[in-house]
Write the structure tokens for this entry.
Amino acid sequence: MKVKEEIYIQGVKQEQNKFKRAGIWLWYNDWFRIIFIMLGVWWLIPLMLYLRYLGMSQEDSSDLICGLYLLIFFIGMVFNDYSNLRRIGMNEYRRKLK
């Protein structure tokens, strides 16, 4: 069984898993963040109308929608550590580490 050698760049261990590398690259891409946070709000409006159609009261559906938006916002704030880019060989400005 071949063991992958750990690689360090500027003292930071580099992520070897391709899916984790892709996830880090995607999450810290500014366009993805805009789509996830800003456009995520737009699907909440049809969801609220659908909940009203199903018979949920306006107060309950509003509370649910506010909770979902707060969850989206919370995820965006918690995973806002751009230093994770160093694990894939990039600095906080998305430029290659030397």
Summary: The chain has a mean pLDDT of 84.
